[in-house]
Amino acid sequence: MRLDFIQEQFKKKGFWNTFRYYFCRAMSKAALKLVGPYVAKHGKLHRNYIVFKNRTMQDMTDNARAFYEYLIQNEKYKDYRIIWMVSDKRKFRNYKYKNVKFVTAESKNGWTSPLAYYYGAVSGFFFYTNNSAYLNLHHCPGQVTVNLWHGCGYKDVPREKHESTGASMMHFDYALVPGKAFVETKSRYWKCPKEKVLPLGYPRYDWMLRPSMSSQEIIRKLLGMTADKMIIWMPTFRNSEVLDSAESRIQLPFPLPGLRNEEELKQLDRTLGRLDILLIIKKHPVQTDWNIQEEDFRNIRYVDQKLLDKKGIQLYELISASDGLISDYSSVAVDYMLLNRPLAFVLTDMQQYKETRGFVFEKPEEYMPGEKVYDLKGLETFAEHIASGEDLYRQERARLLPIMQQMPVKENYAEALAEYLKL
Question: In what order do the strands lie in the sheet with 100-104?
């Protein structure tokens, strides 16, 4: 950990909170070195134990949640015991599921329970969506570790990290990608044999392709309103206090790429009103410096994971309710191709992105089957096309779909994974 980063934490959080965090980190690392090796050597592997570990501070979401729900809803998996590694197990006191246990790992205070390392060592299956946090670094022989991942888009490894991708991210037996286009790129990223990279698609696709509610029901439940047509905008992050990222060096005049200021966002709001379109902006979970006055808009709404959790709606169910997607270099654009609906890519900072983060494809534009947007006018034009039902890139999506996604579309993506692993 860099000294300047620690000093910054002291300024933001104060002495006591910073001290407590690093004390808990130190105790957790001690537990890893003591509990993990001992249990791996003297413990017994339980084939019917399944661990789920989601991204830090994003408990029970994404692919891990989707696969978990498939398992608990099917009688044939009733004999499995499921262990969730969550940031604070106290948040789940009211979750009364048979054979499901919650264990604290990577809390906001830096604490990981020794129980997490125990279950990480003895469980027959260990699933994670970003990195394993070394929770199963030491485990009994025979454990199967599956990297469910959180999506494959256009972003590459930051240039300065090409040789230092963390072991906690690469430690797996299998990893999921959407289609064959990403087998090569991800085997290079993770520095693993291609045989470990499975183009099976993601369990969360089941939410998107078969949501539990209609589009209008989803919007009404989430926002208390209805809309004739809805566009969802999911920009990737540029600035983050959570991650030490190359993207943070990208300078934009406004938090939303493609716009120069709040007045342009207000102009977009007026255009959306004229077209009778609702625009939902999903904030990236690690994005910071969001200084937009959200209450100033009539046809634009903002959602984050906290609101989705409160309303009991999965992000990919919300995506299913949209008539079009605005993205940039994010993996959601690749996922959205399965819905066969219009896409727009905001590429205002593409050259900056290429010089900092970089792309997995030499010519990423050739893998973007949608309208290329650089400014307010481009955003308005895309909205007008959605309103009129004009779909300019239908044929291009059809050409790229078998490359970006595994075909044919599966009846059930979670089931396909369970069958592959012979659960």
Answer: 100-104, 81-86, 46-53, 123-128, 144-147, 174-176, 197-198
- What is the three-class DSSP state of 127? strand
Q: In the Cβ-directed half-sphere of 2, how many Cα atoms lie within 13 Å?
A: 4
Shared-domain flag, residues 230 and 172: no
Same domain, 192 and 269: no
Task: Work out whether the CA dihedral 364, 365, 371, 372 comes out positive or negative.
Answer: positive
Query: Are residues 23 and 50 both part of a single domain?
Result: yes
pLDDT averaged per 10 residues, the chain (length 423)? 59 71 86 91 95 85 95 94 93 86 90 94 95 91 95 77 54 94 90 94 97 95 93 77 53 82 94 96 68 80 91 95 95 96 94 84 93 96 97 96 94 96 95
Same domain, yes or no, for 85 and 10? yes
221 and 190 both lie in a single domain: no
For 384, the enclosing helix (H) or strand (E) is: helix 376-388
In terms of Cα–Cα distance, which of 351, 331, 397, 353 is closest to 178? 331
State the total domains in the chain: 2
CATH number at residue 156: 3.40.50.11820
What is the distance between the alpha carbons of residues 111 and 106, in angstroms, rounded to a whole number? 6
Structure tokens at 364: 């990423």
Specify the pTM: 0.90
**What range does the domain containing 369 cover?**
210-408
Which stretches within 43-150 are classed as H helix? 62-72, 114-122
